[in-house]
Amino acid sequence: MRSLEVKNRTSAEEIKSLRLITAIKTPYLPDGRFDLEAYDRLMNIQIMNGAEGVIVGGTTGEGHLMSWDEHIMLIGHTINCFGESVKVIGNTGSNSTREAIHATEQGFAVGMHAALHINPYYGKTSLEGLVSHFEAVLSMGPTIIYNVPSRTGQDIPPAVIHTIAQSANMAGVKECMGNGRIKEYTDKGVVVWSGNDDQCHDARWGYGATGVISVTSNLAPGLMRELMLGGKNTSLNAKLLPLIEWLFCEPNPIALNTALAQLGVVRPIFRLPYVPLPLARRVEFVNIVKELGRENIVGDGDVQVLDDDDFILVGRY
């Protein structure tokens, strides 16, 4: 299938309006396969609490630990089960342009509403190469560009974004370089989502961001919706910051995976190389939940302090 043959019924304008997008967690069974029953529960929680979009197979969803078959299957499953209720944005980016093209063709073929694309990491390219890489996938459908130099080792500078922003399929940028960069874009009409939960309140209400692509909303979707849709609220932002800081005490998604297991929402199973947070951090999470109010955090049962032996680490998956 050539990219010009891929049809998509969602416009970039529809994607530009999304304010709360959750980078959804991928849960696992003891053998390392996807736990689709738990995944569906997580998706329903997001929809019931007002998330407007989800990123499937992003960093938080551990797309880098999936085969492409798994990746496209999960995008297709999400569209088939939830596509009428929430916008599904598939992370089909890669540091290989060939892989990015192929995965994006497949993602749109199974119905995803938009694609998330990162710049080539590790085998970095020139600025002209970045433009060519993104242009190769932008023709296929609505696209969010993801700039996270702490993971890729290379910043996507504004000159590149302004060049590719001329494409009708360019929905906007998930930006992790801070609110100064966000304002630079929004002042020139580029749609931006904050990629930093700890800065997203100010990004939204002070720097022109449309919203956030959030990790924290996996745990507190209702509060994050209020933070993005309810107007400036410095007290709520301050209330959420201890949870946000805890979530990023180690590289994401280590803390999130630990938290959801302690809440009983997913099984305590990790695909290596991720391992759970140490016991002291697990105890700290219980106290954070109590401070925020158990009713504001996903799940129905009491939050538990799991023992080391409760976790299953899977190396073959």
From TrEMBL:
Protein's UniProt keywords contain Amino-acid biosynthesis: yes
Pathway, per record: Amino-acid biosynthesis; L-lysine biosynthesis via DAP pathway; (S)-tetrahydrodipicolinate from L-aspartate: step 3/4
GO biological processes: diaminopimelate biosynthetic process; lysine biosynthetic process via diaminopimelate
InterPro entries: Aldolase_TIM, DapA, DapA-like, Schiff_base-form_aldolases_AS, Schiff_base-form_aldolases_CS
Positions of pyruvate binding: 60, 213
Database matches in SMART domains: DHDPS (SM01130)
Active site feature: 146, 174
Gene3D superfamilies in alphabetical order: Aldolase class I
GO molecular function list: 4-hydroxy-tetrahydrodipicolinate synthase activity
Matching Pfam families: DHDPS
Reaction(s) this enzyme catalyzes, per UniProt: L-aspartate 4-semialdehyde + pyruvate = (2S,4S)-4-hydroxy-2,3,4,5-tetrahydrodipicolinate + H2O + H(+)
Enzyme Commission number, as recorded: 4.3.3.7
Top-level EC class: lyase
Assigned keywords, A-Z: Amino-acid biosynthesis, Diaminopimelate biosynthesis, Lyase, Lysine biosynthesis, Schiff base
Family: Belongs to the DapA family.
NCBIfam families xref list: dapA
Its job: Catalyzes the condensation of (S)-aspartate-beta-semialdehyde [(S)-ASA] and pyruvate to 4-hydroxy-tetrahydrodipicolinate (HTPA).
Descriptive protein name: 4-hydroxy-tetrahydrodipicolinate synthase
Origin species: Nelumbo nucifera (Sacred lotus)
Source organism phylogeny: Eukaryota, Viridiplantae, Streptophyta, Embryophyta, Tracheophyta
